[in-house]
C-alpha cells in the first residue's frame, strides 16, 4: 500500500473513479469545491470587489500553486536523494505541492487577517475556544466540505493533507497560536505516526508550499500596491527615514524575529539598502520598458519571483535532524536573501495594511463581524435566522461541536460581499427582498 496515497475514508474507492491518479482526484475535489470558489470573494490585501486588477485569495492561491509546482519540478531534478523515496515525508511531488498550495488559504474568513483576528478574539474571550486560519483549513477539508457520496469532507490523500500542514501541532495545547483543532489533529497525528514523521517537523512539500506563499506575498502584493498608488515608486518615499523606521519596527515586533538572526546585522542599514535596490531596479526596468508603468510592474514582479524561486533549495537541519526547504546559496541557507524577502513583505505591510484608509476598512469589517456574531451566538434566536442545512448538520454533530464553533464556521465561510449582505439585512435601514437567493 502506498501510504502517501492513503485516504482516511473511502479505502475501497467506492465514490471515486479508478481512471485517474489519486492526486488528480484531489485536484478535482479542491477546485470544484464551494470553499475554493468562495476564495474569489475573499480579500487578499484590497477588499474583494475593489477593482478588476487586484488579487483575491483565489488568484493568490493559484499563483502560489504555479510557483510551487515549478520549484518542485526543479528540486526533483536537482536533489538525487528525493528519487530514492526513502521516507514519505522526504519527497517532493509537483502535483501534491500544487494541491496543497490551492488549499492553503481556504480557512481564511471574510475581510482578510482582520476577520481572523476578530473571530479568534470573540471565541477566546467568550468561550475559551480558538479560531485560526490554518486550523480552519482542516475543519473545511475534513468535515465541513461535502463531496458526492461522502460525509467526510473532501477526503484528500495523506500526502496532500500533510503538505498543507505547515504547523504540525494541536492548537488547543497551552501557548499554541498556530496549528490544528484537536478534532482534526487526532487524524492528522495518526497519519504522521504512520509516516514516522519527527515531532514538530513538516514534510518537505509543506515547507515548500509555505516558502512559495512567502515568495508570492513579498512580490505580488507589492505589485498590487504600486498599481493602486499606495506605493509611490520615487525617492521621496523610498528614502524617507520614516519608511525605514516603520519597516524596522515591523521586523522587530514580529514574533519570528529571532529566526532571521537580525541581531547579527545593522538592521536599519540593510532595510535602506534593500529599499534603494528595489527602487533602482524599478528605474532601470522603467527605461527598458519605454516608460510604461504596467509593463514595468509586471517585469519587476517577475524578476523578484525568479530571484527567490531560483534559490529555493534543501539543506540538513541540525536542530531537528530533519531537512529544511529554504533559500540557499552554495549549499547553505542564504540568510541575506531571506532577510531581503522579509523586508519586502514588511514594505507591503506598512504601505498597504497600515494605510489609514485600509485601517478604516478593517474597522468597518470588525464592526460587521462583531454584530453578525451577536446576531447568531444565542442558540435559541440563531436557529431562527440560520439556513436550515446548517441547523440540520448541527443536530447531527452537536455531540462533537458547540453552537459557537458552528457559528464561527458559518461566518468564516462567508465571502466579503455575502457578509456585507447579511449585515445589511439585519442592520441597514433599506429593506431587501426576502426572495434573494443566499
Produce the secondary structure layout.
Blueprint: H1 22-31, H2 34-37, H3 57-78, H4 80-84, H5 94-103, H6 112-127, H7 133-144, H8 158-164, H9 182-195, H10 204-227, H11 235-238, H12 241-253, H13 267-288, H14 293-309, E1 312-317, E2 322-329, E3 332-333, H15 335-353, H16 356-376, H17 379-385, H18 388-397, H19 403-412, H20 416-427
Helix pairs in contact: 1-5, 3-5, 3-10, 5-8, 5-10, 6-16, 6-19, 10-14, 10-15, 12-13, 12-15, 13-14, 16-20
Task: Give me the CATH superfamily of the largest domain.
Answer: Hypothetical protein af1432
Bin the strand percentage: under 5%
* Helix content percent band: 55-70%
Span from first to last CA?
Answer: 43 Å
Radius of gyration using CA atoms only: 22 Å
Number of domains: 3
Task: State the CATH class of the largest domain.
Answer: Mainly Alpha
By CATH, the architecture of the largest domain is named Orthogonal Bundle
Q: Which descriptor suits the 3D outline?
A: globular
Mean pLDDT: 90
CATH topology of the largest domain: Hypothetical protein af1432
How do the helices and strands follow one another from N- to C-terminus?
Answer: HHHHHHHHHHHHHHEEEHHHHHH
